[in-house]
């Protein structure tokens, strides 16, 4: 009996051990299965969420903090998407590529053959900003790094041809005086027209204008003519009173005095005067105060603080003094009630002795200034600051109240008349317009380039709907059925000529920053955002403005020389001007003839070989530096 019990116990123990072993095996199998499942799940997740090279480059494009970083990512992105092939192929239905190619070869041949008369004739007969439709937006919305290589090469060759004429040697025997050159440069510059940078509004978003100016300045395409309205007038004033050497520090934000904002912020946070127990101003109180100010006056920021900021940074300079100091044409637009003789554009021609800071304040006039009018100040003959007499009976009003039944009376049209402007670069930062606008030259996202993409189908429809709404609103405005309070939110100012609009990319969270006081850190952020709005349009701006910049540089260079200044014998010998060339020039004959054309009074009457010996390597080097090295 005891033996049977022992045997039964041993058998039961063995069965238990075998069962536990099976359980262990099952557990191991489950763990192994889960491990394999987790491994493949992780692999699948990584495969699904892995960024392609295109996505990485797009991320680099959007996060770039320097133009060089942005440009490097754009070039690689074009190679990945095969857009570089599109750039190298000159053919396109959007522009007359045969005309551009023909003129490119003709100008190149005239330079190689030292055909000065033919070269000048080619320049004067074809210097049109939109020659052959080369500024069409579709030519700049395809690739990221630029447009057709043929267009870029053509602009480079024209700029080099202008430089060739500018530096062409002058000699008595060659009958080529500086006055001849000056006439050619002046007439050609006049025919080509000029550009203006228009900075429109923006409240605190207007700080983006600093980034726009910085990007244009660093790439060598910043126009000499600058106009500003409201907050844009403050930024234009900062730019217009600083020289080239001072400008970069201002555009970085390091030289801008924001003390007035800091002082007012501390005053608000310390409570009202005489309050024994001051309470800090809460976010809700700031919101209510600034919203009330915007409804009442049309501005989020205190105009008195703006006045202090402008005076601290601009000082008591007049328009005339600023022009003589910087050679930049500063224009500030104002809106008046119609009484008095104040022009709607203040500059060194219309108001030379007016203080710039007072004009900028008048451009920011609010509804409250109807009871506390802005006074335009000027300097008299003894440099005493006194009220400007023509504005003694004038009341300034917000720019949103301005209504021009005749577009020829608008400020932009007046600027075009005064300075031969036919091209407008508009930086639009108004908080109620920017979300509904799109920059003219923003590159499309690659996902939208596919014919089957939803974006490629929906965006044109949305754009068409927006254009239709704008058209109907303009009709209501023409019939005087649109109240000014609504018009200022929905309609932008019409531009009398070719234009390019730059709009910073804004997010919904950015609108909460309207309630913030400008700080040094916030200023850097807005400047970078303004720069990023310009980078996609750099290629288009070079095509539109590089020739103008080179013409202006050449004109200023030739104008500084004496009309009767000639090249010495040693300099002529150093440039390879031989006696044979002098003899040919003295008889009015060209060594090799190229394209001919009628020349007006003061045209170049002779030719030589001044800059024709330029080597191919030197030419390629100049072409590589095109755009950024062309001075303003």
From TrEMBL:
Keyword Hydrolase: yes
PNPLA domain ranges (all copies): 197-392
Protein known as: PNPLA domain-containing protein
Family matches, as SUPFAM superfamilies: FabD/lysophospholipase-like
Keywords from the named record: Hydrolase, Lipid degradation, Lipid metabolism
Known function: Probable lipid hydrolase.
Entry keyword annotation includes Hydrolase: yes
GO biological process, one term: lipid catabolic process
Region of interest: Disordered: 578-632
